[in-house]
Amino acid sequence: MPNRSVSGTTSVAKVVVRVATLGFAFTLFGVIGAAVQFDATRPVDPDPAAGRVFPLSNRGHIVYLTKQEQVLLHTLQGISFGFGLVGCVATYFYRKETGKFF
Fold first, then answer.
1. How many other C-beta atoms lie within 10 A of the C-beta of residue 36?
2. Binning pLDDT at 50, 70 and 90, where does residue 97 land?
3. Of 28, 34, 33, 36, nearest to 82 (Cα)?
4. DSSP codes, 13-79
5. Model's pTM, two decimal places?
6. Mean pLDDT across 38-52
7. CA distance 28 to 44
8. Most buried of the four, 21, 50, 86, 87, by CB within 10 Å?
9. pLDDT tens digits along 10-43
């Protein structure tokens, strides 16, 4: 009879890595999409009355965001980084346990 704890752990690790990889990819594309959208649609001059005082630079083209837009962008970046970190750690433990890379 196979050792269920090891096979169960490896299957959980595979699921965690796959979910983390998909989460990383989707949130990374979300960050890129939001940054491109903001770059194309936000004003190039700061507007303190509207709260557009937070600069976003894309290859020298600077646009100004509101606090909410900046928080959205930074939150997506943080979530993407978190998914990537979880995926790397889960992959490390999976490889350490099984000796193979999926």
1. 11
2. confident
3. 28
4. HHHHHHHHHHHHHHHHHHHHHHHHHHHHHS-SS-BTTTTB-EEEEETTEEEEE-HHHHHHHHHHHHH
5. 0.81
6. 96
7. 25
8. 87
9. 788 888 999 999 999 999 999 999 999 999 999 9
